[in-house]
Amino acid sequence: MIPNQFSYVRAESIDEAIRLLHESNGEGKLLAGGHSLIPLMKFRLTTPSTLIDIGHLSELRGVRKAENRLVIGALTTHREVHSHPLVQEHLPVLAKAAGQIGDLQVRNRGTIGGNLAHADPAADLPAVALALDAMLEIQGEDGAEIASVDGFFLGPLVTALPDTSILTSVSFLIPPAHAKSTYLKYAHPASGYAVVGVCAIAAKDPDGAVEFIRIAINGVADVAYHCVAVEQKLQGQLPTEETIREAALLAAEDGEIGSDHFASEEYRRHLCSVYTERALRDLLL
Ligand SMILES: Cc1cc2nc3c(=O)[nH]c(=O)nc-3n(C[C@H](O)[C@H](O)[C@H](O)COP(=O)(O)OP(=O)(O)OC[C@H]3O[C@@H](n4cnc5c(N)ncnc54)[C@H](O)[C@@H]3O)c2cc1C
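A: This is the predicted complex of the input protein with flavin-adenine dinucleotide.
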């Protein structure tokens, strides 16, 4: 539980952090809240030569509305996301998921950017980001670019983020005003991480048919995934007990479901369907 030796640098700006990343030749790591990185270092599962602390850069914090999106700075903590009035008003599902992360201490230190950049398959926010069509603002040596969260998660703890880049903010699509949303999580009894976490957002048209539906799942596969098969099954349909049950049976279709000593593949597939059905019943019946 003692990390390898490393040096520590406090970056005074985003540009300085990018320069320091470049100078570390792939051996440096950004430090935000430290609640995923420091445990990994203690287990020596990662051994960065330099920690580049960006945790105090105030320009990477905060929540603002920009047309039909909420833009959230990468260093905004889970507690701030959970309690922010704009998030509660426009993205209640994100507030709900952020409020289920770890415990109060974790939520006070952990950041939204760190959660997504870390890409833990059992983290709560990747599914919410997929369901809300998140766009990531990434700043690197060649300037800033915007990338879709679709395709960002490549594997456990692996993302498409280049080594010398910083995730500066995440913008989330605000769903239609009449949409309902939920995040349901079956938490691992020891760690509190998601064994399965289902984020679902749905709206019905005036005739009762499903006109908007977004579902994504984390916890069960190597990466969070978007449940296209469930969405296609329900889009335009009148939701009933039966159509919802049939659609929920497809919840594992789009993910490569894994297994570990806690939950077999079969059990994870079962959890996907059960939690998706519960979420859809909450939203559509
Ligand atoms: C006891 C405990 C329980 C937890 N339970 C849960 C849970 O139930 N659900 C859940 O989702 N999470 C959980 N977490 C993880 C927590 O949410 C972390 O805060 C989060 O995953 C990482 O955010 P951080 O700011 O601490 O990042 P750090 O640990 O500082 O960094 C994590 C990784 O992301 C990189 N990084 C950080 N910020 C950026 C950035 N802006 N740009 C580019 N790269 C960046 C770092 O270099 C590092 O590789 C738990 C953690 C602990 C310790």
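The longest helix spans residues 265-284. The chain has three domains: 7-53, 58-173, 180-284.
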